[in-house]
Amino acid sequence: MALLRRANSVSTSTIGLPTMVVSYTLLFAWTFVVLFPLYWLAITAFKIPLDVNGGPFYIPWRDFQPTLENWRYIFVDLGEDTFRPYENTVVVGLTSTAITLLLGSMAAYGLVRMRYRVTIGAVLSFVAGVALAVLLVVVHAPWQIGGGVGFALFLLLLNTVAKRSKRALGNDDIAFWMISQRMLPPVAVVIPIYIFFQQLQLLDTWAALIIAYVASHLPIVVWLMRDYFQSIPLELEESAAIDGASPYRIFRSIVLPLAVPGLVATFLFVLVFAWNEYLIALFLTSANAQTLPLTIAAQNATRGPQWWYMSVLILIMIGPVIAMAIALERFIARGLLVGAVKG
Amino acid sequence: MVARVDRYAAGVFILPAVVVILAFSIFPLLASLYVSLSRLGFSEGGVELKFVGFDNYAKLLFGIDHTHFLGVLGRPTVISIAFLGVAYGLILYLLYRYARGPNFTVGGLIGRLFAAVVTGALLFLVANTVLTSGRPGTLAVTIVYVAVDVTVQYAIGLGLALLVVQQLPGRRFFRVVFLLPMMITPVGVAYLFRMLTDTDKGPLYPLWVHFGLVDVSWVTNPWGARLAVMVGDIWQWTPFIFIVLLASIETLPHELVEAAVVDGATRWQVFWRITFPLILPATSTIVLIRLIEGFKIVDLPNVLTNGGPGTATESLTLHAYTIWRSLDIGGSAAVAYMLLIVVTFVGVTYVNLFRRRITGMS
């Protein structure tokens, strides 16, 4: 479905003048609702504090004299304090998105084209192994021993009891399990993750944020890409397989190139989430790995919110994402949200 | 050799994702459960988690923190009674219809009774804290946020999608512009709306003067503050619903609509009889996503109002965060688990009762 180009809209009949007037009025009304806050943001970035606090001034040059003072402050005076969070946001955002996209697409492809059968017995063996390991750690055994014993129990059960289990979970169950992880509020898992990274001494580093973001955005990628892969015709892959290509090669050289529109849209989507993420960064970072949303939130300093600096920060933060969204709009609208569209 | 590698391909494709999800979702979730059943205590040589059973939950539901979490019930008013009457009537009617219907099973009835009781309890809480002189706790506030936000977002998103789908010149411009708010960091949206809603030096100052509201600071008014949070969230996430519904409407076959128009159907009829039923699957998915994501709201209230005045705008996630900051880690995990339980309940109920039926239909 997604590969078919549906350029035209539902109604092909000509539109009457009254309808047109009403439509445009409503459309421009919402355009105003969307753009006015952004306009206000943009002009505030060029105002001196007096012009912000002295009452609303709307139009540059007429109501107030625009100045680059705020930009100078953010880029020159703050300098390092602006660039470091920016660098963090770019690195963490791009890296985590790339990794999520890779792992998620692989899993999604597997779920679409391969058959999985996980017996209930295997799942229960795993749970039993984990339970034993946790129990041992709780009664103060070293975690290496707890983990080892738990793993041994898992292998033991897997090769004995679990072999007899007939009922199994299939692809759909696994997909549902993965996607349903999105229901998990981050705040419910962030404390153990905090302790985990604290133990590894990874708090306030890129690695911690990247790992946490990969985990929390993986379900979106699996969900979107699974639907996308389903819409790719099977024949190409089959003929490649007959020619002796391995599954990895088929995935890399045939499936991924065909899925570019879906990948682009998913990339944008996940990048926006990672770029703007606030809660996990709030828990896991302090000074070094702080990302931009935290820097912006921190502008609400003791002297009250410094709107003019804040506006500059928000502008430079949303600039790249908005540029990307405008450039890639066509992908979002068409290829991408197939999953949601199909239901 | 090649065949051997291929045999493991299935595992190679899926295992990395499974491992990541197990390690960073499932294990933390279990660990969190344990944390929520314990209290952080100071002992010799540092801190220690002490197992306290369900104390943290009891504190939220009946103990010192219950006004924060559940709120204060007010005396029932005409509106709250009417609201509950309608809601309970609807639930009973749905149950009755199911019991008399052809798909009736005992298991199905038990599941539905459970869903009805929990929904009834949540509605009771919301009605008696929000629609009366009571004070809603973070649970009720979060539910109100989600209910209002998703409803309004859907209404506006659908309206815009229907407008843009017409073949008007310049539709690409509207598509791009309408998408923008979604890209902005929620923290930025929060500050933006703080600037815009400032009654003293915000751009709406002339309006406030006109209505004589200049001296009224909405930040100190609980409903004013909540309204600001909701407006911000609606502004930000309407685009998401818009873009999905637009894509959905654009993939509908034209022939149906054209045939209907030829037969003399009005626009209204075309929408209700053809377009709307056909976009129900997309609707059900998008509403599910927004429901789930909506419950996680935290940035907006935290930055916009700092949860204030008092705790009036605090969402559940923000509640968990503020408790965490005061080092009550067990209590924080308990709030987070309550949120998880509510989200799971809403998600599962929604999927079972609506979504499955709708997607089964198409």
**Which percent range fits the helix content of chain A?**
over 70%
Measured as a percent range, the helix fraction of chain B is: over 70%
What multimeric state do the chains show?
Answer: heterodimer
Parts with pLDDT < 50 across at least 5 consecutive residues of chain B: none
- N/C terminus separation of chain B: 46 Å
The first-level CATH class of the domain at 54-73 and 134-361 in chain B is given as Mainly Alpha
Strand content of chain B: under 5%
Morphology call of chain A: globular
In the CATH hierarchy, the architecture of the largest domain in chain A is Orthogonal Bundle
Task: Write a structural description.
The complex is a heterodimer of chains A (343) and B (362). Chain A is an all-alpha fold and 343 residues long. Chain A has 16 helices and 4 strands. In chain A, the strands form 2 sheets. A two-stranded antiparallel ribbon of chain A has the order 1-2. In chain A, α4 runs parallel beside α9 and α9 packs antiparallel against α12. The N terminus of chain A is likely disordered. Chain B has 362 residues and is mainly alpha-helical. Chain B has a domain of 248 residues: MetI-like fold. Chain B is 72% helix and 4% strand. Chain B contains 17 helices and 4 strands. In chain B, α2 packs across α17. Chain B is globular, with a radius of gyration of 24 Å. The model of chain B has no long low-confidence stretch (mean pLDDT 85). At the A-B interface, α1, α4, α5, α7 and α8 of A face α1, α2, α7, α8 and α9 of B.
What is the element layout, followed by pairings?
The complex is a heterodimer of chains A (343) and B (362).
Chain A: H1 17-44, H2 49-53, H3 69-77, H4 80-113, E1 118-119, H5 120-138, H6 143-159, E2 168-169, H7 171-180, H8 190-199, H9 206-230, H10 235-242, H11 247-258, H12 260-276, H13 279-284, H14 292-297, E3 300-301, E4 304-305, H15 307-336, H16 338-342
Antiparallel strand pairs in A: 1-2, 3-4
Helix pairs in contact in A: 3-15, 4-9, 4-12, 5-6, 7-9, 9-12, 10-11, 12-15
Chain B: H1 2-7, H2 9-36, E1 38-43, E2 46-51, H3 55-61, H4 66-69, E3 71-72, H5 78-100, H6 106-130, E4 135-136, H7 138-165, H8 171-179, H9 186-196, H10 205-211, H11 222-250, H12 254-262, H13 267-278, H14 280-294, H15 299-304, H16 316-325, H17 329-361
Antiparallel strand pairs in B: 1-2, 3-4
Helix pairs in contact in B: 2-17, 3-17, 5-6, 6-7, 7-11, 7-14, 9-11, 11-14, 12-13, 14-17, 16-17
